[in-house]
Amino acid sequence: MKIGVVSDSHVTSLAELPDRLLLALAEVELIIHAGDFISRDVLDGLKRLGEVKAVQGNMDSAELKRILPERELLVVEGRRIGIIHGWGSPYGIDDRVGRMFKDVDAIVYGHSHYSQNEVKQGILFFNPGQARNSFGILTVGQRISGQIIKL
Questions:
Q1: Distance CA 29, CA 27 (A)
Q2: Spatial CA neighbour of 35 closest among 65, 63, 14
Q3: Which of 23, 46, 61, 84 lies in disulfide reach of 71, CB 3.0 to 4.6 Å?
């Protein structure tokens, strides 16, 4: 399964996101957004492209914080994927988000605006970076692998 991963869109409408990102998200089987949509219009726009799993970010509206969880655990093709936005300084963020999940194959997060695609102690830590600069593709099958696409 191919999953499109985006975070920190920081826009008020889907039209403000890069065309290349939107084209890629229209081609995947699932979209994960790791928070900081800013506007519900962005969430609704992504849902028109396909199935979306999402968490709230620190910059999201009160409405989004009411409807989205702080963290989520997905099981895709037998692989466990934790999703959380993150908080605090970019330094050590992967350690902080890593403590929020037990027994996962991957952790998808955002907040820092820096992309990451790194396996640590058997867990893939995957941050797609800020949506205007990059996004990610997770491929899930016998194992999980990630790719960061720079815009």
A1: 7
A2: 65
A3: 84
Are 66 and 43 in contact by the 8 Å Cβ rule? The answer is no
Looking at the chain, how many residues does it have?
151
Domains in the chain, number: 1
* Domain with 50 in it: 2-150
Q: What's residue 31's pLDDT?
A: 98
CATH of the domain at 47: 3.60.21.10
- Digits of tens for pLDDT over the chain (151 positions)? 999 999 999 999 999 999 999 999 999 999 999 999 999 999 999 999 999 999 999 999 999 999 999 999 999 999 999 999 999 898 889 999 999 999 999 999 999 999 999 999 999 999 999 999 999 999 999 899 999 999 9
| CB neighbours of residue 78 within 10 Å | 9
Return the closest-CA partner of residue 81 out of 48, 53, 42, 57. Answer: 53
> Distance of CA 4 to CAs 24, 38, 102, Å?
7, 19, 23
Retrieve residue 82's tokens.
């934790």
